[in-house]
Amino acid sequence: MASEYLEHKLALLPDAPGCYLMKDAHGEIIYVGKAKNLKNRVRSYFKSSHTGKVAKMVATVADFETIVTSTNKESFLLEITLIQKHQPYFNIKLKRGTGYPYIKITNERDPQLQITGQIKNDGAAYFGPYPNVYAAEETVHLLQKVYPLRRCSGYQGRPCLYYHLGQCLGACFKPVPEAEYAAQIKRLKSFLNGNTKQIKAELTQRMEAAAAALEFERAAELRDQLHYIEVTVEKQKIISNDKTPRDVISYYFDKGWLSLQIFFIRQARLMKREKRLFPVVDSAAEEMTSFILQFYQRKNNILPKELLVPKGLPNAEIAGILGIPVRTPQRGEKRDLLAMGEKNAALALREKFRLLAMDKQKTTGAMKEITDALGLPAAHTIEAFDHSHIQGADPVSAMIVFVDGEPEKKLYRKYKLTTVIDHADETASTKEVIRRRYSRLLKEGQPLPDLIFMDGGAIQMAAVQDVLENELDLAIPVVGMVKNDKHKTADLLFGKAATPVHLDPRSQGFYLVQRIQDEVHRFAITFHRRGHTKHSLSSRLDEIKGVGPRTRTKLLKEFGSIDKIATASVEQIRALGINAKTAQLIKVSLQKKAAVNKGSSHD
User: Where is the UVR domain (predicted)?
Assistant: First the structure.
């Protein structure tokens, strides 16, 4: 049910194409979508019932805004730009680069054959992507032996080693005719496009000639190269009658999840397959379109000559944006490729559902074990707290959240304690953080947890209960997590008398308590160490006369640590724009402090 504020905004939505940006209570953009009709699309979120990720997103929306575009194509482009800029939580997001190696024939007077992960608009010829770096390297090694270009750094007045090995055309000591390069490049491109018959015939002829001349080592080398082509370059079954580089993207959609299969067809063979699984908010067609546009607009990505997609997608708009043919085949081997992709996508999604069911059974079962042992009704959300300090210095608290047995890291919170007089006072520390946390939730009307776990014993539990009951009028069950003498999870404490509650150490419930206790301790310690280190660095520099925030920042940025500043020369410190007197004072002060610390460590 939309709030009154959202109802007013929904009434003002335009009947036009464009993009919509959903925001949470903090103003963060959590989802970006596009629509041919913004009014109909955005209203559908709040006027219909939803499940899964859609329901979760709608429940989080506190505001939205729209951007009207002139055409539907403009809304496609704007949506991808906004997703890449804001990285919304509920959108499908892809990494910037492909991560795949390509083979490159450079565009220069004396060209080279290289492996690269960077695609540039430099006139070079690129081939790939290759399944892995090893496959690309082995292919290049073979081609450098059979169809060499230039392997040396250029003219040096004498032949290079590669020239003597027959793997360089000799740019190291003579001008190589461009026609000779052109002939080699033509052969290379033919091979990289899948035509291996010619190179196999040439290698066979050379091998036989070497054997006839009793050059058995050379014949064996050529035999190995032929074997490599058979087992590596040709190991994939030919699945197409033409050698057009094409990608095939199929999908299967069920229960709010989108399963994708991407086949990379190169040299008439299936060179690589990718599979992706996403819980999605929009329709399958909308999410597929968003994925495809993001996928092919990443860095270091070479577009295929043709893209095959299932029916129901806006082929014309995708083709117009990508600049390549986008087709939905109706018959023949291409349709069979799409069907094969859909079948694999369905299998992958069913496997995912089985794993999710098993995980849910474990996590929800663990939650039920805990609540049954405590004599409480079923619970979903646990918030756990821990404190950290070093001999009373820089006290902090940390809170983590587990929902249905799984950590929700976006909900974790850190607290710098400000009202604690005695830094080792666990009661005061606990009361401050509990007061701050739940006063805010009540003020903002946010949901409260079902259980509060404290890493500690009866003292911490009593402090929590005091604040909840006597200050905030809340009745949230409080549980203590205690450890044994080996600092391992032992039991739970519960109730006014902090009564021990035993869990079977081999049960999923015990394992969940262990995870919560370890995680909240890790989060608190990490937060404290970062803050303590930063505070220590800053305070040691701030104690030096003439060192202000700007000078301190310069020093830490340049040297990285107090120890490195202390070992730096006065000239190095002055090079940062610090006057001679202050530089000398910094040097002397830090060296003196280092000597004192060293002496005290030996006492």
Answer: 197-232
Rg (CA), the chain: 33
Domains of the chain, earliest start first? 4-86 (3.40.1440.10), 246-350 (3.30.420.10), 381-521 (3.30.420.340), 543-601 (1.10.150)
**What are 13's two structure tokens?**
């939505």
Region of residue 255 (phi > 0: left; psi between -120 and 50: alpha; otherwise: beta) = left
Q: What is the 3-state secondary structure (H, E, C) of 320-385?
A: HHHCCCEECCCCHHHHHHHHHHHHHHHHHHHHHHHHHHHHHHHHHHHHHHHHHHHCCCCCCEEEEE
pLDDT digits (tens, 9 = 90+) for 383-425: 999 887 544 455 778 899 999 888 998 899 988 877 765 556 7
Q: How far apart are CA 280 and CA 253, in angstroms?
A: 10
What pTM was computed for the model? 0.48
Tokens of 201: 């015939």
pLDDT in tens, 488-532: 777 799 998 889 998 888 888 888 898 898 898 888 887 656 544
Name 393's Cβ contacts closer than 8 Å, sequence gap at least 6.
Answer: 423, 532
Task: Return the axis-axis angle of helices 508-542 and 549-559, rounded to nearest 10°.
Answer: 120
